[in-house]
Amino acid sequence: MSQSGGLVLATRYRLVSELGSGANGTVWRGHDELLDRAVAIKELRLPEDLSEDDRVVFYRRTLREARAPAQLRSPAIVEVYDVVIEQGRPWIVMELIEAPSLEQLVERSGPISAAQAAHIGRQLLSALAVAHKAGIVHRDLKPSNVLLDGDRVVLTDFGLAYSSGSVSLTKTGHFMGSPAYVAPEVAAGEKATPQSDLWSLGATLYAAVEGRPPFERENVMATLSALANENVATPQNAGALTSVITGLLEKNPTRRLSHARASDRLERALSGPRSGRRPPAPRYRLASIIAMIAAILASCGIGATALIVGMDRESPGPPPAAPSSSSSSTGDPAAAPPGVGSNALVIRALTETCRIFVSVPGQSINVLANETLVKGDTRQYDQPQLNVVLHDAGACEVWINGAQQPPGRPGTTHRFPVKKAASGG
Prior knowledge:
Elements: E1 8-9, E2 13-22, E3 25-32, E4 37-44, H1 52-70, E5 80-86, E6 89-94, H2 102-109, H3 114-133, E7 146-149, E8 152-155, H4 167-170, H5 184-187, H6 194-210, H7 220-229, H8 242-248, H9 259-271, H10 286-299, E9 305-310, E10 324-327, E11 345-349, E12 355-360, E13 366-372, E14 377-381, E15 385-390, E16 396-400, E17 403-405, E18 413-415
Parallel strand pairs: 9-18
Antiparallel strand pairs: 1-2, 2-3, 3-4, 4-6, 5-6, 7-8, 9-15, 10-14, 11-14, 11-16, 12-13, 12-15, 16-17
Helix pairs in contact: 3-6, 3-9, 6-8
Domain Protein kinase: 13-270
Protein name: non-specific serine/threonine protein kinase
Transmembrane segments: 284-309
């Protein structure tokens, strides 16, 4: 235990045991003797080479930035209770969360699943949205500052780390932020912004699923060089989260994902394919579907005639009507079906083996009929263009634009004359 052990701060916060330490200070388990509750206390360690003026600036900034997060209300943000100055340095009194960090989890068990990372990302994005709305930028989002308390994800050190810095502190040569998780624009000396926090979120999620941050190299200078000059390698284990991570790791902050777009992609990654919608119908080339049907029929010993029918109307007229059906009791092959119009395709069954496949061509196939007609039945179609396959051409009669068509040979394709549409309205 360090020499601070047993110290009582502001006559109420007793340091009980050391929980961990890093470059910016030490975190203690503490006890609030006034409210009789356990707390976490962060002892901020100032660099020894700071001038007295820099120390004053640092203290003021610590107090100012501690007050702001204390006003935030989010289950994904650690709650700040108090800030006190004791022994010439600031101490931050916070909610005690006895849980491992994301960094510890990955070091102990390896990269996490894309689904776990998406859950963590959603809560971290929520925390950032709350903070950014209040004008607070975290500046040091990384796996060691993300605690995993069961299903709860908690972002710690919100704007309190020394790396938050200022111009006067930067002059001392201390790097602002963690190089492996800092945004390129911040590494280049620009001011940290909400967009730079989103980059850090992307780098954190990348490390969660890949086991290492995207630009981590053997030392700080190599890491910063890679950050400035290399492209982000596509994560291999991100699954549905890939577009979220790569969007957050866009080097140009103006093209980086916004809160709203990142949130939308995260929700889709968590929910998977949207329910309530039918999957899109497969699309086929017209020639392919006709050839496929003809080949299947030929393999079964059945003749098929494919009719590619173009029927442009003579005048604009109403929209194409749905296929209609009627039955004829005459069954007389010589007699034309009743109601055969000049702009219609009509099919009449001569025998019980008149099986038809009728569809409307386009980007996708719209099937109007796939049936075997009863002898004497007729089908009329008024669409401007149709594809027709007759499984037994000799069992059906076909009229196009009022003219009866020859049956043709099995397995052949026929093109029939197309009536030109009249101009004008």
